[in-house]
Amino acid sequence: MSMTTRTERQPAGTHAADSHDLIRVHGARENNLKDVSIEIPKRRLTVFTGVSGSGKSSLVFDTIAAESQRLINETYSAFLQGFMPTLARPEVDVLDGLTTAITVDQQRMGSDPRSTVGTATDANAMLRILFSRLGTPHIGPPAAYSFNVASVSASGGFTVDRGTDRTRTEKVSFSRTGGMCTHCEGRGTVSDIDLTQLFDDSKSLSEDPFTIPTYTGDGWVVRVITESGFFDKDKPIREYTKKERHDFLHREPTKVKINGVNLTYEGLIPKIQKSFLSKDRESMQPHIRAFVDRAVTFAECPECDGTRLSALARSSRIGELNIADACAMEIRDLAAWVRGLEEPSVTPLLAKLQHTLDSFVEIGLGYLSLDRASGTLSGGEAQRTKMIRHLGSSLTDVTYVFDEPSIGLHPHDIQRMNDLLLRLRDKGNTVLVVEHKPETIAIADHVVDLGPGAGTAGGAVCFEGTVDGLRASGTVTGRHLDDRAGLKETVREATGALEIRGANANNLQDVDVDLPLGVLCVVTGVAGSGKSSLVHGCLPAEGVVSVDQAPIRGSRRSNPATYTGLLDSVRKAFAKANGVKPALFSANSEGACPTCNGAGVLYTDLAIMQSVATTCEDCGGRRFDASVLEYRFGGRDISEVLAMSVTEAEEFFREGESRIPAAHRIVERMADVGLGYLTLGQPLTTLSGGERQRLKLAVHMADKGGVYVLDEPTTGLHLADVEQLLGLLDRLVDSGKSVIVIEHHQAVMAHADWIVDLGPGAGHDGGRVVFEGTPADLVAARSTLTGEHLAQYVGA
């Protein structure tokens, strides 16, 4: 008799595996979160809202996404984990129901000069394979079309030992065909160094002739040159012989002995190229960057015409195009060209390449070209470029995490982005979005509103539920969700104009336009229409203060006090009041706690396990030596001053014995841009993208210049903060400044005195001025995409 047991099939929807439909977070305390406990539905679109600094990123990125990544890393062997970054477990009691998280953030793509849109998305790799199969004449494998691979060849011999008295020499040769232009080494540009900015040739080496940062008279760099033995130390540089001048400027690395120490001497030009020009300009210290800007000019490579590719790589064609031509085309035009290729032997490759290029067009980036340097993309463009590889993915039950995907998008493009988010959700994925724009909040299945304030006043969940529930909730976000700025009844009259004539940078088509002075002028248009090319590329540098989207850099030792220069005046005031050195009041200098070296915490490296950070017991996290904390100014020690919020500091530095006018001006500007809740000593690494942008604005407000150029200052701003920003812009104009703003936000457009609208489309479909006039005239005409959306916004 059979003993087989038959299991009854469970009714649909009651299987145990189907019960895991929530991501549960309990007791989250990362950064400013205050024991946050929420449940997020899976396979739904959840939008996280709240004022800037309320804890949205701390919850979504630093807690949920970070723990998902850490748990995935733990599935690898200890050997592999040794090669991976060690991730600390977030400050949270329970995280349950997590799935694999794919983070698409606003971080700009690497600004390595060899990185392009094509290399970052693998489109270039597919094009190289395509040309290596179909290109005529055939010049070699895919590497022959790569500007990152140089052509090399070598030959020689090696000895083979076959036992006692049995050796023989065998000849070997090696060659590799690459596509790199040898003149510019695949960079597309060549640098020309102005020698007059490096040294004074009327002086000798003994007279300290160098004007290069770090090249001081008694430093080792100069000693190697002076004592190398190649030059007469007392002979003026301009009197060097031809050989001496070559050794001074271009000599190959050569071993020299100075005071018994073996060192390497190298010519000045290659040494500067290695030490200065190989680095990303934005990562340089200000004085180094100023030197590079002063001494070095970059021009298009004359050998490859900026294509980065060798003549051999450019000689191979498919039809009329070589690979350089293909990469220089706008992606939407390249997609049409690829669609016209019919070759059965490469059908799978063509299908994949076609899908990648179509994804660019679908996501609104069809105006880019594959040879565009990835470091020149805006934060919004970089984020959408990272989305490309996920659009056609067959993966489901993945958690996609987006950080303000609407940044850099014209209202016309936001609907397209919303459709993409909904498509990802409808494939069975969980989509988490940090967002401020009401157009994106409106499509949410579930909303989590954090607040009620920012910094220490935030970090709590104010509302969970539907969009309609949020509107009725009475939270800051709920109250402002339907806010709409109205058109101004009267606009300011211009006091002059900045004339731009024949502008043709990038996609601009001989644009002639007058940007009015003495008013709030907004430059708008769809993404890729030429706004940044017109404003940043064509305005004179003199008298113009430009606040662009480049991120501010800083380690965990940097904070608002150090970044803004506030700490300099505070240290001097402490030193003067106590009769000691200012260096004592720096946690990065003599005043640092000797145990933690001024970090405030001690880090214990546990190899493949997460590093453990513990508060320093000696200083209690205050970062300063105990003896320094005995000195007081205005009744406070230096650690207590750094623990103040900007609002408290504004009152502290205003009057009385703690009055410091220079410090008060700085905190006043920080309060003006809406950063009153930040503490002076808060590490820059904990600030959100919007907070960093506004901190940068606060610093630049002190610059001397009559014209302020702001690039999307609403980035990262909550609906409630936009009104404060408009007030700040008004105050700047009323103080006699001219303000030019590149912006997509309709509230800023409605508040403008004058609008310049570029378009009508992106790329080669843009680059023209399609409207100039007041916002009221733009709404009345409705002749452009911007006019239509602005009219809809103001209810006209």
TrEMBL record:
Residues 1-20 are annotated as: Disordered. One of its GO terms (molecular function) is DNA binding. InterPro entries: ABC_transporter-like_ATP-bd, P-loop_NTPase. One of its GO terms (biological process) is DNA repair. GO terms for cellular component: cytoplasm. Keywords: ATP-binding, Cytoplasm, DNA damage, DNA excision, DNA repair, DNA-binding, Excision nuclease, Nucleotide-binding, Repeat. It is found in: Cytoplasm. Residues 491-785 form the ABC transporter domain. Pfam families: ABC_tran. Belongs to the ABC transporter superfamily. UvrA family. This is UvrABC system protein A. It comes from Streptomyces caelestis.
